[in-house]
Amino acid sequence: MVYRESPSTIERREPEGDVLLRVDASGRAGAPGARGHDGSDGSGAGEDGSPGGHASAPSPGENGGFVAVTMRPEGATMARVEGTRRFADGRAHAVRELVTIGDYGFVDVVARGGAGGHGGDGGRGGDGATGRRGSDATRYSSGGDGGRGGDGGRGGRASSGANGGAGGRVVVQVDDADTHLVMLIRTGVDGGIGGQPGRHGAGGSGGAGGRGGSSHTWTETEHYTDSQGKPQTRTSFHSSPGGSRGPSGASGASGSGPLYAGHDGADGAFAIEVLTATGPKQYPGRYELMLSGITLRTDDRDGVFEPGELVRVDGLRVRNVGAMPSPSSRAITLEVRDSKWCGALANEVLEIPRSVPAGAEIDVPGTLTFELRDHAPSDPADPLAEHERVLLRAHVVDVSRSFERFEPDAMAPPATMLVRFPIAASIVEGLVALAPGEVTRLRFAIRNQSKLALGAKSSSRRRVRARLALFESELADDAALLIDEHGQPVPMRGEGLVRELDLLEPGADWVFEGALGIRESAPSYRELRLRLTLEIGRLDMPDVLRVVQHRELRVRCVRTLAPDARMDWLLVAHHRTSREEIDAWEALATRHERRLAVWDLSREGHLELGSSVIERLGGGLVIVLGHPMSSAGREVRAAEMLSHATMSQLAEAGADVLLAGGTADLRALLAPAIVDRDVAPAGGEDALVERLASRVENEGALVETAELHEIGMFFESPREARLEARARALAERLATRFPQRRFTIVWELAPAPRGSWLLVHRYRLGRIRVLARPAARCGVAHVALSDHALADPRTIASNECATAIAVASGPDDQVDALVRAIEASDGARARVWSDAILVGLASEQLAVLRRTRSRAGLSRARMREALPRLVRLAHTPLVPDGREDAIAIVAELAAKLRFFADAQVRLWERIPGIAWARRAAMLDALTETLIDEMLDAQSSDELVRRALRDRTRELEKTLRQRWKDARATDLTARDRGAWSRAMVLAPVEREGVTTDDELLVADDGDLVEHAAWSARLRVAHASEQARTALVASAERERSELLLMVRTAELIGPRARVEVADVDEPVENESGSLLRANG
C-alpha cells in the first residue's frame, strides 16, 4: 500500500499552539492516482494523434491505529502519560512523557483515519499531424489539393477518488481518584475524508489540412514576319492553377466514464477507563457540567441593581450533561467572572458537590456575592439602564481548567440584570428658542423606579435632591429669569434652584413646573445652558448625596423677523446656530454689500415664509443651514421642512436658494409641482409642442397633455413599447427645441378604437402628460459641508462659502454683484462672482448641446434666445472709466468663455459645408459675436475697446498654451473639450458645490410610466404629510410651552407668578397660562 507520508514524518510531529502533548496514531493519507500520459502528436503527414493514457487508481486512506495511555498525577503541577500507540500497519511506539499542567493547553490523543487519495487526471490526446502538401502545377497539369489533417487522439480516462480510512480507537485510563486529569484530554477519532475524482483528459486537436500545390506560370515567344516583311516577336503568358488546402482533421473526444468521490471513513471509538475498587469502568466521554438554575438579588430587595451595590447569587443548580460522573475526590469550584459591571470579590467561591452522575442535576449550596461597579455620570444623558449578564466560571482546581460550555444560552435571561439607579429624571421640557422678552414653561419629573419609598422621611432614609442651575452658560442671571413652581424668581447661579424630596413613594413621580424667560436686554444668539443634577443618598450613608444623573436644557436667545425688515439675504438659522456663526454670516453679507435677516426655524417651527417675507426678500438669496436641529422631540435638518410650495413661491419671485451642509436632493426640489388637474388634450405631438412653444416664456410650471393615435392593420393591437418609444422621442424633441427647460413626461397606455376602413383601423394608443420644471430665473445650489465645518466661522468667511453663494445666485444677481465688486475695487470678490458667471455661461452652452450636436431645426435667432445669460452680459457695462483692474477681469471672463465655446467644436465640424449644420459650430460663432458685443459695450472709448480685445486675445492664447502643456503630461487633457469644461467648472467642483445648472446639463428629462408616476405622487404625498405633521408637532409644542406673558411682567418687588395646571388651565384675558400677581 502506498501512502503520501512516510512513517518517520508522522513520528516527528511536534506539539504546537495549545497542545501540551500529542499522541498520534492517525492513518496516512492515500497516494493520489497518477496522471495519464499525454498522447503523442502525429508525426507523418496526415497521421492521427495517439490517445492519452488513463490515470491510475489512487490509494485509500490508512485506517487510524490504536492509542492506549494511562494518566496519573506527578506532584501538584505535573502529569505522567504512559502507554503505547500502534499504527494500522503494525508499527508500535511506546509513550512515556511528563507534562507540565500549567493554566492552559491539552493533551491531544488522536487516531484519525487517513484521507483518501484524489483521483488522477486522464492524459490529453495527441494532436493530429498536418496533411500532406499537394503537388505543384506544371505546364501540363493543375496543382494538387492538400491532404486531410490527422485526427486528434482521444483523451485518457480519469480515476475516481479513494475512500478515507476509518478512525481508530483511543483509550485513556485513569484512577478513580485522578479523573480530574481527563480535563486535559482532547481527542479525535473521526474517519478520513474521501478523495476527489480526477478530470478526464481532453482530446487532441485535429491537424490542419495540407497546403495545396503551387500554381505554375510560363511564357511562349513566337517569331514571325509581318506584312511589310519585317521580323516581329509575339509573347503570350500562360498559367496552371494551384491546389486548395486540404480539410482539417477532427478533434479527439475527451475521456469518458463515470467518476465518483471516495467515501469518508467511519468514525472510530473513544473511551475513558476508570479504575475503581470494584473494577474498571468505561465511559464514551468525560463529564461536562452546565448551569441550569440561578437567582440574582440584592439585600434591600428594592428591585433595582444599583451601581456600588452588593449582589447575591444563589438558587444555583448544575447539570452534568457529560458521559461520566464528575470527580469524587477533586474540587470543582464556582465563582463570578469579572465583566463591565460585575466586580468579583476575593474568596467568593463555592464548591460544586462531587461525583455528580451523568445526566443528574444538583443544587449548589451557598451564595456568591459580587459588587456592581460604581458609576459617576459627568455629562447629560438618559437614565442609566444597561443589561448585564452575570458570568460564572466552573473550575476544576487541581488542573486549573474550566468548562467552556458551562453557561448555555437558555440561562441568559435569569442571569441578566438591569443596572440602573432607583431614581431617574425626565428630560427638562421647554422651548429651545426664545426671543428677548419671551417666556417658556419649564417642566421635568423625578421618578422612583424602585419598590421602596425614597427620601429623608422614608423608611430607607435615603435623601433625594434635584438641582437646576447654570452650567457653562453664555447667558447669566442678568439675561434670563427662572420662576419656580410657586411663582417666585430663583437665582440660577451657584446652586440655583434646589428641591429636596422628603418622600417619594415607589413608582411615583415628582413633577416640577415653572417658567423660564429671556430678558429684553439679552444678546441674540447666545445660549442659556441649564443643567439639572439629580442626587440620591449613598447606600451605606443615606444622608450623604451622590450624583446619579444629569439633564440639560439649552435655550438660544434668537431674533424675530421684524414686520418691516428689508433684506437681500435671508439666513434660515435655528437654536444650534451660535452667535459667532451669525456674526460671520453678517460680515459676509456686509462684504458683499447685502442686508442679512434671520428666520429662526426653531422659534417659527416651519419654513412657510409667506408672501410678505418673500416680497420683502425681493428676489434675494435664502441660505438654509443644514446642521441638525431639535424639533418636536426629534432631530431634523432644515431642508426636510422645505416644501415644494415654498420652493415654487421662491422661484416665482426670482429668489435664489443655497442649501449649506447636510444632504440635499436638488432633483426632487426642482421637480415640477405635483399637479393633478385636467388639461384639454392636444391632438398629437406636434400640437403639444406648439402649445408649449407659445407658453415657454412663462416662468412658472407648465402642464400640457396629448392623446397619441396610430393607424394599423385590423390584427394589430396597441403596444406599450410603441407608446414608450414615442414618449422618448418626444422627450428628445423637447430637450432639443427648449434646451433651457426641464421636462417630466408621463405616459399611460389607454387604448381605444377611433374608426376603421376595410382592413385598416385607427386607434388611440395612449395619453402623454408633459410637466415643465421652473425656468432658470433663479438659482438653487447645495454646498457639501460637514456639520463641524458649517458651524465654523472660518468656513463662513472662506472662499468656499463665497463661491457657493455666488453660484447659487440667479444670473441677474450675479451680474449686479460683479458690477458692485468692480465699483468697490474688490478684486477677490469680483473674481468669485466672475467665476460664478462663467460657470453659468458654460452650463448654458452645454444645455444647448446636451441632446444633439446637429442643428435639428434650431435657428440662430432661437439659439440666441437660449443664451439669456450671455445676451444680458453682452449689454452690461463692467469697465468704469477704463480701469485696468476691470479690464483684466472682463478680458479673462471673455477669453475663458471664447476658449470654452471653441473647444466644444470637433475638428471635422469645422469643414466648410458641414459647419452650418452642426450646432456646436454655430454656437461657437454666435458666442464669438456676443463676446464682441460685450467688449464693445464696455466703453465708448476706442482705446479701451482695443485694450480689452488685445488682453482677451493674449489670455486666450495663454489658455491654449496651458492646454498644450497639460496635454503633454496628462492623457485626460487630450480631449480639449473635456479639459476646458474642467477648467471652467473647477470653482464649483473644488468647493463641493452642486448647482441646478449642472442638473439641467446632466438631466435629459424625466420619462415616467403612469403607474410609477402615481407611486411617486403617493411618496410625495406621504413626504408632505410627514413634513406637515412635523410642523404641526412643533407648533403644538410651542403653543403648549410658550406663555403669553413678557419677561418684564415677572420682575418687581412683589411679583409672583402662578403656573396653572396644564390639565385645568387658568386663563386670563389674553389666554395665557401664566399670570403675574402684585
Structure description:
The protein is an alpha+beta fold and 1078 residues long. Among the domains are: 58-118 and 161-199 and 258-286, no CATH class; 287-420, Immunoglobulin-like, CATH 2.60.40; 423-557, Sandwich (Immunoglobulin-like); 685-726 and 749-772, no CATH class. It has 21 helices and 47 strands. The strands form twelve sheets. The protein has a six-stranded mixed sheet with strand order 4-3-2-6-10-11, with no helix packed on it. Strands 23, 25, 27, 28, 30 and 45 form a six-stranded antiparallel sheet that branches. A hairpin with a 7-residue loop joins strand 31 (527-537) and strand 32. The longest helix is centred in the last third of the chain and has 32 residues, at 1010-1041.
Described by the principal axes of the CA atoms, the overall outline is flat
Spatial extent as radius of gyration = 46 Å
CATH superfamily annotation of the domain at 423-557: Immunoglobulins
Helix- and strand-based class?
Answer: alpha+beta
CATH class (first level) name of the domain at 423-557: Mainly Beta
What would the CATH topology of the domain at 423-557 be? Immunoglobulin-like
End-to-end C-alpha gap: 113 Å
- Average of the residue pLDDT scores: 86
Tell me the strand order in the biggest sheet.
4-3-2-6-10-11
CATH architecture of the domain at 423-557: Sandwich
Low confidence ranges: 1-16, 1053-1078
Q: What portion of the residues fall into strands of 2 or more residues?
A: 25-35%
Counting DSSP H or I runs of 4 or more residues, the number of helices is 21
